[in-house]
Specification:
The chain has 572 residues and is of the alpha/beta class. Strand 12, helix 9 and strand 13 form a beta-alpha-beta unit. The strands form eight sheets. Strands 5-2-1-9-21 form a five-stranded parallel sheet. It has three domains: 53 residues; 225 residues, FAD/NAD(P)-binding domain, CATH 3.50.50.100; 217 residues, FAD/NAD(P)-binding domain, CATH 3.50.50.100. The protein is globular, with a radius of gyration of 33 Å. The protein is built from 15 helices and 25 strands. Bound molecules: flavin-adenine dinucleotide.
């Protein structure tokens, strides 16, 4: 160490000497030239040269300074980003030991692994309860990017997060059963579960008793009882729906290109109909048209004259929850993209090759029209799951609720004491969105954490009050009394939790051609924007919202992959 320290100044010194020497060499060269012509005053020339040289250096230093700092900042942010990503990956791959659950604690059963339930689990202190999660889906799905999976812009596994990985990182271990809850007995406090997977063991049905239950099972696809929808249409809710659509798009294209295919049949096969003008339907239509424009048209030129996308909506406009200017912008953009929008058109019947839809003609008369299709995607909203319907039928206070489990401001299912509901299966007067479900889940986690703290303090208070009764003298009685007062103050603070309040962050939708629309809640009100910059915002917002570092990296790589190589047009 000592020798190193001694060497360092020497090295510096030699550098400085070298620096002076170079400077001296540089400055002497022009001076030698000036000695020859006698007309010039040497001092003047030197001053002039110095001033010029100094000025030039000043300008250069300023520019170089900015560049140097920009470079350093970029370099440091890249290093910081890499280190953060690396750390995230390391933590994800190396879970630490978990505490075993305490059998004396209450059993909290959570149904579902969607937005509501996972947000609850993310924020819950699992040491406070014996937590059991039941869901037929052993992963969390980032639904906002699901429409991109239908065309291969993003691979489905990039937006899935295994629930096992996630639960393994909780402090106290959580039990997970891959099963469907088939019935909830609210009175007996039991959930009946069934293993619905292909492979079943000798036991595939069981019961789970609970002290507290959270229902976060989401919703089914609404068909409004229209005949033929379930049999013939594709839905867009789960990963297998997106995979089915992706296969079907390519099947339609390849069948249309079959030798000597009938012209009418080619037109039918290449007509892609989307029913539902909400964000899901609009995003899917935009993604599909992009797929055609950027890839299909190139690799299958024979289909380019007949490929069409039509969006059918019963209401007078698409994206009804967005502001008027954005609705107009979306409709204009769709027109440019050649996506046909059929508003005020109600589907009445669906057959394997066409839909029958009712629309109002310009004279105001209702007409029925047959619209042939190759692919039909149904994205019209939510309906109750049988499990939820059954639970509602057991609770008299739920008899007037139609759209889901009616909950109070603390998300307690009305008419029950120990059952809560979150997300699409709960009716709390908010739209059925991931944003609402996630905020409800986070609220419940805070509530449960506080309830556990309250119970802990109340137990301590009981112990202290017993001790106070047995205290040998006044001094120790006073001391215990002071502790009790402290605890009571803490208890009051902990119990102060307001009801659930939803804070709307805004709505986003991709509309194709690298354009998006956004209605963002801002301090001063609502900001509506649409276009390519909004599309960059859409991408960065969703990238940052992805569940894990792994998802973020995979989604980013998928975007890069489809940008560089294009989307894959193979059928599987
Ligand atoms: C394609 C698409 C795009 C979307 N885009 C957006 C968007 O951009 N922004 C936005 O805010 N919202 C969006 N949404 C809506 C959002 O996904 C839903 O509102 C959200 O998923 C609701 O969360 P949830 O927890 O109630 O239900 P889900 O996320 O649907 O999860 C339900 C869970 O319950 C499980 N389950 C089902 N039945 C049972 C049973 N019997 N027993 C146990 N478990 C069961 C399911 O397997 C699943 O794990 C989109 C939805 C779709 C389909």
């Amino acid at each position: 160490m000592a020798s190193k320290a001694a060497v360092r100044p020497l090295v510096l010194l030699s550098k400085q000497t070298r620096g002076f020497a170079t400077a001296a060499r540089r400055t002497t060269a022009p001076l030698q030239q000036t000695t020859r012509p006698a007309r010039f005053d040497r001092q003047q020339l030197r001053n002039g040269f110095r001033r010029g040289y100094a000025d030039q250096k000043k300008v250069k230093k300023g520019r170089w300074g900015v560049l140097k700092w920009t470079w350093r900042l970029t370099y440091l942010s890249v290093l910081g980003g890499l280190a953060y990503t690396g750390y995230g990956i390391y933590i994800n791959r190396n879970p630490v030991e978990q505490h075993a659950p305490d059998p004396n604690k209450k059993t909290l059963v959570i149904l579902g692994t969607g937005w509501g339930s996972v947000s609850l689990l993310k924020n819950l202190d699992t040491e406070n309860y014996n937590v059991i999660v039941i869901s037929p889906r052993n992963y969390f799905l980032f639904t906002p990017l699901l429409p991109s999976c239908t065309t291969g812009t993003i691979e489905h596994r990039s937006i899935m997060e295994p629930i096992r990985n996630f639960l393994r990182h909780k402090k106290a271990s959580v039990k997970y059963y891959e099963a469907e809850a088939t019935k909830i007995d609210a009175e007996k406090k039991v959930v009946y579960i069934t293993d619905d997977s292909e492979i079943k063991g000798s036991i595939s049905q069981n019961e789970i008793p609970f002290d507290m239950l959270v229902v976060g099972v989401g919703a089914e696809n609404a068909t409004f009882g229209i005949p033929g929808v379930r049999e013939n249409a594709c839905f867009l809710k789960e990963v297998n729906d997106a995979q089915k659509i992706r296969k079907r798009i390519m099947d339609c294209c390849e069948t249309a290109a079959f030798k000597d295919q009938d012209t009418e049949e080619v037109k039918r096969l290449l007509h892609m109909v989307v029913v539902g003008g909400g964000p899901t339907g609009v995003e899917f239509a935009g993604e599909l048209q992009d797929f055609f424009e950027n890839d299909l048209r190139k690799w299958m030129p024979e289909i380019q004259d007949n490929f069409r996308v039509t969006l059918v909506e019963a209401l007078p406009s698409v994206l009804p929850s967005f502001s008027k200017s954005l609705i107009d912008y979306t409709e204009k953009t769709f027109k440019e993209e050649t996506i046909e929008i059929r508003t005020k058109t109600m589907v009445k019947n669906v057959t394997p090759s066409y839909i029958e839809a009712e629309f109002t003609d310009p004279s105001g008369k209702k007409q029925l029209e047959k619209i042939p299709y190759g692919l039909l995607v149904w994205a019209t909203g939510n309906a109750l799951r049988p499990l939820v319907k059954d639970l509602m039928s057991q609770i008299p206070a739920q008899k007037d609720s139609r759209r889901g489990l009616a909950v109070n401001e603390y998300l307690v299912v009305k008419g029950s004491e120990n059952i809560w509901a979150v997300g699409d299966c709960a009716v709390a007067n908010y739209a059925p969105t991931a944003q609402v479900a996630a905020q409800e889940g986070a609220f419940l986690a805070r509530l449960f954490n506080q309830m556990a703290k309250t119970e802990e303090i109340e137990t301590e208070l009981h112990v202290l009050s017993d001790e106070q009764g047995k205290a040998p003298n006044q001094e120790s009685r006073d001391k215990i009394f002071a502790d009790i007062k402290d605890l009571q103050k803490r208890l009051r603070r902990v119990k102060q939790m307001g009801p659930f309040e939803y804070s709307h962050q805004g709505s986003l939708a991709y509309i194709g051609s690298e354009k998006a629309v956004a209605d963002i809640s801002w301090v001063t009100g609502n900001v509506a924007s649409g276009g390519q910059l909004t599309y960059l915002f859409w991408r960065s917002a969703y990238l940052s919202m992805c569940f894990s570092t792994r998802n973020r990296v995979l989604v980013f790589m998928d975007w890069m992959k489809s940008y560089i190589f294009g989307r894959d047009v193979s059928r599987e």
